[in-house]
Design a protein that fits this description.
The protein has 348 residues and is α/β, with parallel strands linked by helices. It has 11 helices and 11 strands. The termini are far apart. The relative contact order is 0.18.
Length: 348
Amino acid sequence: MRAVMRRIGLLTGGGDCPGLNAVIRAVVRRGGDAHNLSVDGFRNGWAGVLEGTAVPLNAESTKGILHRGGTILGTSRVNPVDADGGVERIRDVLDLHGLAGLVVIGGEGTLSAARRLSVEHGVPIIGVPKTIDNDLGGTQFTIGFSTALDVATAAVDRLHSTAESHNRVMLLEVMGRHAGWIATYAGIAGGADAILVPERPFDLDRVCRHLKHRHATGRSFSIVVVAEGAVPAAGTMVLPDYERDTFGRPRLGGIANHIAPHIEERTGFAVRVTTLGHVQRGGSPNAFDRVLASSMGVAAVDLAAEGRWGLMVGMHGNDVVPVDLAEATRELKTVPLSMYAVAEVFFG
């Protein structure tokens, strides 16, 4: 006689990124085939859990989604811990649906809430790290970073030809709230002439001197990659105040537009700005993200089947391994200065 099927819940929270559907597919396929687990997917992240809006997922409903961008479940930036009666509502929904626990796919905000629910309130959760920013601890790479990096690198490549044709300084703004992984990697891969990241506050006068030196030595154009969270050195310039989201984080974007006129004024060079924005999050995941997401989905549902809650799956070397869920958000994983030093070698 076939054992009674157990149930788990699944959600995707925070900003979307390439690879989310690959995780969903892996959890459903592995859960059903290897562990006799059925999966309920909650609509729109934590909002769906609070409202109890779930749909059954199976092999048929998740067929053909591996290569699709976004998330078939939808997402939101709701903070369930601070919602009115949020913790009790989550417990009630788990009981109502007969769920042993939740597989939570998210970034800093989503997994911070997951950690609090797990550690402080005993809600059974397994975390899966996704964010194009690649700034979560406990894992070498996060789902979505590699695809976003491909998009940013392609943009640097394309900007080279138009910058050279018009003798311009091109500013490319990419995502990166507190960590400049996309900016640093894309800058190195694309041959940028300067990179501004949150980890290394910039002095715009120094940046302008560097650009003028390049032009004085025969380079007729420059490419500057700017992370959205880049910050000026203390006392050098003032940035505008940003609105904040439900997790209290600033809604970043537009720093390149803010500094562009200052560069024009101090150098006399024509400056143009390209902001990639949500283009970095959209579209199909690349091969690396499809494999990483599939591997993490399988590992996550294996942990859930074993009842090993309070953990996150992370990439260590070539392996996906369990780590403490708290590791994801204990401290942000920032770009080491040694990596930025590699980039500086090419700022000639």
